Amino acid sequence: MYQRLILSIAALSAMLLAPVAPAQERAAGQLSVLLRGYWSCAVPGIASGDAREVRPALDFETIRGSRYRVGDDIGIYLRLGDRVTMTSGPFRGRNFRVTGDDSIREIEEGSLTPVRCLRRPAN
């Protein structure tokens, strides 16, 4: 009886002390940053043409910290969990949902838009 109780306590302790996976932390609204690199944005194409219609005017580069660059202009973004908000700079007010380490989707008025941005690693 005591042996079963000790095993149960040991199992419970191991579960409670196990580290939380990064994806679970981000999903819970943890402060984080996007991976550094160049984010190329596009919308889905049509079946008879290109798979993606590139939108260079929406592209940006994530740099050190929570900053991004568009041309010579620099702004700041906030990432909480799977949400990214451009809080200053040329894209102030743009919102995204993180869909993977190298992909985000733009959000407008609470709904996903067709705009998807994919990351190329920084040089």
From TrEMBL:
Record keywords: Signal
Extent of the signal sequence: 1-23
Protein name listed in UniProt: Elongation factor P
